[in-house]
Amino acid sequence: MKDHLIRTFVWTARDNQDPDKFVFSQKDSRKALARSLICDEQTPSDVQREKFRIFMSLACPSFRIPSCSTVNRDCYELFEEEKTKLKNILCNKRVSLSVDAWTSEQETTYLCVKAHFLDSNWKLQKNVLEFCPLSDHSAEAIGKAVEKCLLDWGIDKIFAITVEDSQSNDVAIHNLKTRFSNSENSLLGGKYLHLRYIDNVIKLMASDSLQEIGESVAHIREMVRSIVLSPARLIKFKECVELEKIDNKRMLCMDVHTNWISTFFMLDTAQKLQKAFEKFQESDPYCKSETMGAGMPNRDDWQKVKWFIEILRHLYGLTLHLSCSRHVTTNTIFARLFEVHHLLSEWQDSTEMGISSMARRLREKYTNYWGKYKEMNLVIYLALILDPRYKLEILESLPSELHLTPEMGEIAREAAFTLFDEYKRLYVPEKSSSSEKEPESGARSFPSDFKKYLIQKRREEALAAFADGKSDLERYLDEPTEQDWDYFDVLGWWKGNNHRFPILSNMAHDLLVVPVSRAALESKFSRAGYIRDSFSGKGSKMLQVLLSTKSWLLPSHSSSCVEDDVQNLEEAERI
After folding, report:
1. Residue ranges of the hAT-like transposase RNase-H fold domain (predicted)?
2. Cβ neighbour number for residue 7 with a 10 Å cutoff
3. How far apart are CA 523 and CA 519, in angstroms?
4. Does residue 149 contact residue 113 with C-beta atoms inside 8 Å?
5. Which residues contact 483 (CB under 8 A, 6 or more apart)?
C-alpha cells in the first residue's frame, strides 16, 4: 500500500486537532479512510492487508478496521454527499460538457460525461458527472445516456457539448440540440452546442506529415526494430553511442504504426542517435539483410526526418498543451496552430531538395481542414476575440498568412456581437423600479463597510460606462490589446475586469471553458486500472463512485501539476 494512503488517513482524521484535545471518532475515521482510498486509487481490500493492520494497531489502537463491504458502503455515502455539494454548485450555472467513450482492457465500453465550468473564483473545474457502461456506439444509446445524465443532475444551461467526430455522435447531439433548442436557457437555439474534438485534426496533420516522408520513416523504423529485438545488437549499439560520445538519456524505442506520437518519440530519439546508427551500420554487415527489404537509412532519410520532426514537435506540444493544462485552452489553439503554418511558410522558400514541394502540399491539406468556415463551430474564433492579447487583431490583419478567408474577421466580429446580444438579453441589469428614489443631486451615500463601498463604486463605474452609448463588447474592442504575453492569465484578467464589462464577462465566463481536446481521457482512466481488477464483479456503479468522487475531491486546478501530467501522458503514449 502506498505511504500516501496512511499519511492521508491519519492526518485527515486529526486535521487541525490539538493532540491533547483529540477525541477519537470511529465514524470520522472511516470517512477519512474512504476519502483516502478514493483519492489514492486504492481498493477496499487494501485495508485488510497485514502491514496496514499492524500500523493502525500501533498508531490508533481504538480504530476498528472495517470490512470490505463496510468500506464500499462508506465510499457510496461519500459519493452521495459530494454529489449533493456539486449539484448545489451547478444549480443555475451554465456549463460545457465533454462526452467520450472509453474501452477497458476487458473490452467493455464506458461513456464518460464531464462538466467544465468556472467556480466563484474563476478557477477552472472539470468534474466527471457520469461514467456508465454503453451498450453500443449508436446515436440512440449515446443520446439517451447524455440526456439521462443531464436530467439526473438538473442541468439545463449548456453552452457546448464536445464529442468525437463520428456520425453517431453527430446524430446524438443533433437530437439533443432539438430537445434543448426551445428552452428559455438555450443560446441562439443551440447554435454553438455541437463542437468536435480538435484531436482528429491534429492526428490528420501528423499523419500527413509522416506520409510525406513515409519511405524514410520505414527505413529508420526497420533499423530500430532490428536492433531493439536483438539483445546482442542492442549491446553493440550502446557501445556505438558511447564511442560517439552522444549524451542522450533516452534509448531506442519501437513505435506503434497507428499512434503518431509513438512514431514521433521513435524518430526523435533515433535522429539524436544518427551518428551511432552510422557507426553501427559499419560494424554490422548482416543488419542490412534483416531490415525486411525496407533498406538502410541514408543521409537523405536523416535530413528529411530532421526537418519534419519539427512539425511533429509542434503538434505534440499542442497535444500536451490541450490535454495537460489546468487552464483554459480554447483561446490559444489558433496561436499555436499559427506556429505550424509559419514553419511551413518558411519551408516553402527552402532550397533543400523536395522540402519546398512537400511543404506546399502539406499547407494545402491543412487549409482544407480549416477552410470550411461556414460549416465550423466558431467557438475557437470567439474565444480568440475574448483573449485581451488578441481580440480581432489576428483575424483581421493576418488572413493570408493563416490561409483564412478574407471575410473571417468580419464573420467572427458579427458572430461575437450576435452572441453578445443574446447574453445581453439574459444578463442585462434590470432598471431600477419607480419606487426606488434616486439620491438628490450632489448627495452620495458612503456605506460604512469598506467591501460594500467597493461594490457600490464598481457598480457606479459600470453604470457610467453605459452612459456613453457603447456596449461592453464595443468598449472592450476599442481598448488596446494586452502586452503581457509570457505570464498572462486570461481568467484572472476577466475576473479583475468583470465590473467594467458586466455582460461580456458572463459571456467569457461560459465560452472560455469549452473543452476542445480528449487527449487526456485515456491516460487518465488507464491509470485507474486498479478498478478493473478489484471491482469487475461489483457492477458499473462502483466505477462511477470511484472515478467521479475522485474528480470532485481533487479539483482540476489543484490535483496535480502540469509537469506530472506531461510525464504521465508521455508514459501512457509510450505503452
Report:
1. 325-423
2. 12
3. 8
4. yes
5. 389
The letter for the amino acid at 61 is P
Q: What is the pLDDT confidence band of residue 422, given thresholds at 50, 70 and 90?
A: very high
Mean pLDDT of 397-410: 66
213-230 pLDDT per residue, tens: 888 999 999 889 888 888
Q: Which residue has the higher pLDDT, 149 or 201?
A: 149
Print burial letters for 151-168: b (CB count within 10 Å at least 16), e (below 16): eebebebbbbbbbbeeeb
- In angstroms, the CA 351 to CA 354 distance is 8
pLDDT, tens digit (0-9, with 9 covering 90-100), for 520-546: 444 444 444 444 444 444 456 777 788
Quote the CA–CA distance of 289 and 303 in Å, as a whole number. 23
Strands of the 158-163 sheet, one edge to the other: 124-133, 109-118, 95-103, 158-163, 194-196
Report the predicted TM-score, pTM, of the whole model to 2 decimal places: 0.78
Which H or E run contains 39? helix 26-39
With H, G, I as helix, E, B as strand and everything else as coil, classify residue 97. strand
Contacts of 3 (CB under 8 A, 6+ apart): none
pLDDT in tens, 282-316: 877 666 555 554 567 888 889 888 888 888 888 88
* C-alpha span between 80 and 574 (Å, rounded): 37
Cell numbers found for residue 421: 446580444
Residue given cell 476498528 in the structure block: 64
- Residue type (1 letter), 235: I
How far, in Å, CA of 373 to CA of 389, rounded?
23
What mean pLDDT value characterizes the chain? 78
Cα diameter, the chain: 98
Question: How far apart are the C-alpha atoms of 554 and 562, rounded to whole Å?
Answer: 15
The DSSP secondary-structure symbol of 438 reads P
**Contact between 115 and 90 (Cβ < 8 Å):** yes
Query: What is the C-alpha to C-alpha distance for residues 509 and 499, in angstroms, rounded to an integer?
Result: 13
**Packed helices 333-348 and 299-324: angle between N→C axes, nearest 10 degrees:** 170
